[in-house]
Amino acid sequence: MFRTVFHSIDGNKVKNYKSLNRAYKAIFEWFGNHGKDRSAHVLLSGPEIGTETYRAQHEVPYKPKVKTRKLNHGMWVKVRAEVLKRDNYLCVRCGNGPQKNSKRAVEVHHKISVEEINRSVELTYLLYAPSNLETLCDLCHLDETIKQNTSRNSPD
Length: 156
Hints:
Elements: E1 2-8, E2 11-17, H1 20-34, E3 41-46, E4 50-54, H2 73-86, E5 106-110, H3 114-118, E6 133-137, H4 138-153
Antiparallel strand pairs: 1-2, 1-3, 3-4, 5-6
């Protein structure tokens, strides 16, 4: 049995967990709700570990399973329209687009890819952040996607 004592500005809460991993998960999630409380900390004790103290979420040896977040269609349509308008419906790389009588379609591209964003809870806001989006023509978008996939799959 693993005993946790959650300390925050709101008071103390004691909980017991059957597994160490479940205790770590609970502590990780608790800091997600209490991270701004500078006095927040957790004491964890158990047979395998003695007593451990955690003062921030990043200290907890727990990695949450990252669920793939799909783009919310309504939000995406709105942000996509804003980015296209901001970039004058032109590719920011080569300048082509419907405004220049080009037959090339323009698309909105994530500078930090959706796949990379899905690997980190902290990056979720980038799915809809205009600063992470740019208008590219279909050829520049294809070129950029190939570059991203190549760099992601190459060894460091």
